[in-house]
Write a structure and sequence with these properties.
Layout: H1 2-30, H2 36-68, H3 75-90, H4 100-128, H5 133-155, E1 171-173, E2 176-178, H6 180-202, H7 204-214, H8 216-221, H9 226-251, H10 258-273, H11 278-294, H12 304-318
Helix pairs in contact: 1-12, 2-6, 2-7, 2-9, 2-10, 2-11, 3-4, 3-5, 3-9, 3-10, 4-9, 6-7, 6-9, 7-9, 10-11, 10-12, 11-12
Length: about 325
């Protein structure tokens, strides 16, 4: 019954939005421009770029949930802090005025330090006191609000762009176009995700992370230092969130609430791929990004996030454990 109510609500939302969307599609057909095939390929390219950026941010969120079962609502602020810290080093008059590349590297390192600091200063003491997951989730909401408003005070409400790679001429690759900046960001994002996969599969710390995610008690009984693994996961999650923030700010714009706006899509990617699965977060985020961009071919761009979330609902109705998740018996 719960799933049926969700489906009915979704269909009602679809019927409400359909007339406006159809009118928009008709207006687009009147206008002269590229053919549908070219626009389809362009939206697909843009969706892949958007999806891999979401995936970089969402992998850390998934790893944190997999190791300590914490839904980190403050993860979006890690994304924002990475982008705004790189902006300070690159653009701000009070900053050193570094080139974006070293500024991004320092921002990623700062994200790793922030993740380790938050874990050791906040989450580890709470876990030692036996704080429940619901209480810790509420703490993440408070931490998110605190960090977001600290960024607001320090950065301000005015959007900004990085000093380098701002305006570029697009490469014409047949029917589609892509700027060197966007192409580089996409390739670096894919390389980062492949690096994370190699880390999880081919290194001792990656094996330990997977073991803790599968069964924390058994991993600890096998001699794995669970506290160290959790610290590494927080550092990795903070670094990936900061890198994703730099990439997202580079292809879009840097704002004080950019991570919060991206957080819902990160959760959607993690849930769609399968809770606690890093590979599931990658696949789910890619699907979310492609659906969000492809929906603009038929519907207004303001609704692209809604269609991505509707896709999440439909997939979970068919496969509740997510794309790469495993069925679990409860009770």
């Amino acid at each position: 019954m719960r799933y049926q109510r969700v489906l009915v609500t979704s269909l009602a939302l679809f019927l409400v939005m359909l007339p406006a969307a159809s009118a928009s599609a008709q207006d687009e057909e009147v206008q002269h421009g590229p053919g549908f095939g070219a626009r389809f390929l362009q939206a697909l390219i843009d969706g892949i770029q958007f999806g891999v950026i979401i995936a970089i941010c969402a992998v850390g969120l998934s790893l944190i949930f997999g190791t300590i079962h914490l839904i980190n609502f403050a993860h979006g602020e890690f994304v924002t802090i990475g982008a705004t810290f790189a902006f300070f080093l690159n653009v701000s008059p009070s900053g050193p005025g570094w080139h974006l590349v070293p500024a991004a590297i320092i921002a990623v390192a700062g994200g790793a330090v922030l993740g380790a600091f938050v874990d050791r200063g906040l989450w580890r003491p709470l876990r030692a006191r036996g704080t429940g997951l619901i209480n810790m989730f509420i703490v993440t909401i408070g931490l998110s609000l605190l960090l977001r408003h600290i960024v607001l005070v320090l950065y301000g409400t005015r959007p900004g762009s990085f000093a380098q790679y701002d305006i570029q001429k697009a490469y014409d690759l047949g029917p589609v176009g892509i700027t060197p900046r966007d192409l580089t960001v996409t390739l670096l994002s894919v390389a980062t995700l492949l690096g994370v996969a190699a880390l999880l599969q081919r290194t001792r710390i990656g094996t330990a992370i997977r073991a803790v995610s599968e069964n924390r008690d058994l991993a600890e009984a096998s001699g794995i230092d669970v506290k160290r693994v959790v610290s590494v996961v927080w550092m990795l999650g903070g670094a990936l969130a900061a890198l994703g923030g730099v990439f997202f700010g580079l292809v879009e714009i840097v704002t004080w609430d950019m991570g919060f706006k991206l957080l819902l899509l990160m959760f959607a990617g993690v849930i769609l791929g399968g809770l606690g699965s890093a590979y599931g977060a990658m696949v789910g985020s890619l699907v979310i990004g492609i659906v969000a961009q492809m929906s603009t071919l038929w519907f207004p761009a303001d609704l692209q996030y809604a269609w991505a979330l509707l896709t999440l609902i439909i997939v979970l109705l068919v496969r509740p454990q997510g794309i790469l998740g495993h069925r679990e018996r409860i009770g």
